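> forwarded from #structure-qc
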């Protein structure tokens, strides 16, 4: 019994959230029977223990920065927040005044540079119109519609299979592939879609300026067979208007792998978060056309990643997205010298923010 009590005291002492719950329950029970002492809450004393100044809260590095902060903090305050986030992710100091690495320079671009074309490109609906203007028809997946309210979607008018996406999110949580419309749980679907429309569900909370004035919407686009977890992505890294290298994303359904290549399809000797494949990847049949398009789309921008998909029979290529802050500028290189090498490739423009 003594061991159990000792263990229970340890658990309560080490978990602040549990102490708060116990405190609230104790206070409710106590004041219910003694209303006259309601104004005298019971204080639970805990044994103080010295901890590092880098507490879990101080080192939290997710994208949950308060939406209002992201909108209304001053530029200087945003930079201070970025320095904290950057250190937590990358493990070294963000020198925003004299950035040298690729990741540092992406942070600089977040708070110092904007272009109205970037705003169009990061909105997945506007992006399709932009690509059509630049390249003509047929280079993006066909769009069925865009809505700012889940109840405005006419599901009867949509085909049996389609894909739903948030217009301003890129992670898999904001993509729903519908292969059989009749099997949908419509109540659940609409509830999920409504959460996509929250203003805070935007990369503006990581201070990416291109997202600062955008509001999330819902889009539906064509479902294309083969564009699933087995899909291979070809992502061209473009510096100051010119593609310099690319990486390929493979095996999404298993253990996602990423290979970096130069433009001669030589495997480069570094990784970024994800491991290399354990097999050889073939150069896509449309590589030269992809490179031509990447260079055309990259011309206006200091840095952009241009993503492509190739149809199974290689008869078509699609531009998947244009990304200006890949990985949020938080993905570490192994070895780190490549963070500096890619940083050397990027000449920063003059600040316009």
């Amino acid at each position: 019994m003594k061991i159990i009590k000792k263990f229970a005291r340890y658990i309560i002492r080490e978990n602040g959230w549990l102490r708060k719950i116990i405190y609230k329950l104790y206070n409710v029970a106590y004041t219910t029977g003694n209303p006259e002492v309601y104004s005298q809450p019971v204080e639970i004393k805990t044994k103080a223990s010295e901890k590092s100044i880098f507490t879990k809260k101080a080192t939290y590095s997710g994208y949950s920065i308060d939406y209002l902060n992201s909108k209304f903090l001053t530029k200087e305050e945003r930079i201070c927040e970025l320095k904290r986030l950057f250190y937590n992710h990358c493990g070294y100091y963000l020198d925003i005044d004299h950035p040298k690495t690729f990741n540092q320079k992406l942070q600089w671009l977040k708070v110092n540079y904007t272009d109205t074309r970037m705003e169009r490109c990061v909105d997945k609906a506007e992006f399709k119109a932009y690509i059509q203007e630049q390249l003509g028809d047929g280079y993006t997946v066909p769009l069925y519609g865009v809505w700012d309210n889940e109840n405005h979607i006419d599901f009867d008018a949509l085909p049996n299979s389609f894909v739903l996406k948030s217009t301003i999110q890129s992670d898999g949580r904001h993509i729903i592939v519908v292969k059989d419309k009749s099997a949908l749980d419509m109540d659940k679907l609409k509830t999920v879609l409504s959460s996509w429309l929250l203003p805070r569900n935007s990369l503006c909370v990581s201070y990416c300026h291109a997202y600062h004035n955008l509001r999330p919407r819902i889009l539906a686009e064509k479902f294309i067979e083969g564009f699933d977890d087995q899909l291979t992505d070809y992502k061209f890294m473009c510096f100051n208007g010119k593609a310099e290298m690319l990486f390929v994303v493979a095996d999404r359904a298993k253990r996602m792998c990423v290979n970096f290549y130069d433009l001669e399809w030589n495997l480069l000797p570094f990784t970024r978060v994800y491991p290399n494949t354990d097999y050889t990847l073939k150069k896509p049949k449309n590589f030269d056309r992809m490179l031509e398009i990447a260079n055309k789309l990259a011309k206006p921008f200091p840095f952009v990643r241009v993503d492509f998909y190739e149809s199974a029979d290689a008869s078509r290529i699609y531009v998947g997205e244009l990304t200006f802050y890949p990985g949020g500028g938080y993905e570490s290189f192994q070895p780190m010298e490549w963070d500096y090498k890619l940083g050397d490739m990027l000449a920063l423009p003059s600040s316009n923010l």
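QC bot note: The chain is about 35% helix and 15% strand. The CA atoms of residues 50 and 135 lie 61 Å apart.
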